[in-house]
Amino acid sequence: MEYYKQINEIWRVQGYRKAINTLRQQKQPVRTKQDALKLPGFGHQLSDKLEEIVKTGKLTRLIESKKDSRAAVLGLLEGIFGVGPNTAREWYNDGVRNLSNARVRPDLTPQQRVGIDRYHDFNTRIPRNEVAQHFSVVESAARNIDSGLRCFIMGSYRRGVQTCGDIDLIVTKPGTKRIEEGEKSLMWVLQKLTTQLTAMGFLKVCLLGKDKGGKDSNSKWYGASMLEDIGIWRRIDILIVPWSELGASLLYFTGNDLFNRSIRMLAVKKGMSLNQHGLFKDVIRDKNWKKIHRGTLVEAHDERKIFEALGIKWLEPKERNVG
């Protein structure tokens, strides 16, 4: 699927993901083309590939894709922080074939330059125990600022995987209802926390800390951190979340992406809307399904109650590794 992502054939990626989920739901092994053709989402080409894998343990198309130099270069470029698929294709068309070519581009953003300089650090998987150590540093600093602050590790770590691509953390405080100025605000937390962690030498660079208006954000900080005894820069995201929205944020930032898309689609089918701020009912959409009224809040604080409101059984985070 990574190959098709790199060449921007997203429809194929979605097709493969649906097929994988279909196979996982089968009680009996699917071993032949004829068996596969009986399943939803399996046409002749996909069924042929399944039978080839069963018979040979290999897939010719996968072997061929690894020889595709264009796909390999695009994969390399997309590994640079701040470079998405469109930028990678633009750079490729301009003749960029490696990190050295990319480094001399005159239009590099500061974030992309850091992404090139720390390419190998950012693309090295992080063991669970190291993620936990980064978390402990942030949690200790947060408690030093305010003993009432609570911290959570999100992303693939919460889903139980053994290595992570980056470190996703939520910081919140019981009783808080908003981030902005006012009663029970969290507006002050992020600046104090990141300032302290930077002074300690733990946070190495800020890659995104501004809102859409260019002002310092009060809710998110994306950058890099490092443990002195390990010496590798790791991508870390720190999000400030009101206690009143904790459950929705836990659900949203735990993932994985395919699980999130599936559960949000389920909400839409039920006339609801689900995002990191909560589950809403009586949502009004136009003829193009664009939301024009967010509706009434059903639940935001309790993650389990969001599952209940959607009419689905509770899934532990480790059960959300879909696709």
Plain-language structure description:
The protein is of the alpha+beta class and 323 residues long. It has four domains: 2-65, DNA polymerase, domain 1 (Orthogonal Bundle), CATH 1.10.150.110; 78-122, DNA polymerase, domain 1, CATH 1.10.150.20; 126-241, Beta Polymerase, domain 2; 254-320, Beta Polymerase, domain 3, CATH 3.30.210. The protein has 16 helices and twelve strands. It has helices spanning 2-6, 10-24, 33-37, 44-56, 60-65, 69-78, 85-93, 99-103, 110-117, 119-122, 128-145, 155-158, 189-199, 246-254, 257-269, 303-310, and strands spanning 126-127, 150-153, 163-164, 167-172, 203-208, 220-225, 234-240, 273-275, 278-281, 284-285, 291-293, 296-299. The strands form four sheets. A five-stranded mixed beta sheet has the order 2-4-7-6-5, with helices on both faces. The chain has a three-stranded antiparallel beta sheet with strand order 8-9-12. It has a two-stranded antiparallel sheet with strand order 1-3. Strand 8 (273-275) and strand 9 form a beta hairpin. Helix 6 (69-78) packs across helix 7 (85-93). The model has no long low-confidence stretch (mean pLDDT 90).
Q: In DSSP terms, counting alpha (H) and pi (I) runs of 4 or more, how many helices?
A: 16
Q: Report the top-level CATH class of the largest domain.
A: Alpha Beta
Tell me the CATH topology of the largest domain.
Answer: Beta Polymerase, domain 2
Enumerate the strands of the largest sheet in spatial order, edge to edge or round the barrel: 2-4-7-6-5
Rounded to an integer in angstroms, the radius of gyration calculated over CA atoms is 22 Å
Tell me the structural class: alpha+beta
Shape estimate: globular
Helix content: 40-55%
CATH architecture level-2 label of the largest domain: 2-Layer Sandwich
Strand content: 15-25%
Major sheet: 5 strands, mixed
Number of domains: 4
InterPro entries: DNA-dir_DNA_pol_X, DNA_pol-X_BS, DNA_pol_B_palm_palm, DNA_pol_lambd_fingers_domain, DNA_pol_lamdba_lyase_dom_sf, DNA_Pol_thumb_sf, DNA_pol_X, DNA_pol_X_beta-like
Organism: Nadsonia fulvescens var. elongata DSM 6958
Catalytic activity: DNA(n) + a 2'-deoxyribonucleoside 5'-triphosphate = DNA(n+1) + diphosphate
Protein name: DNA polymerase
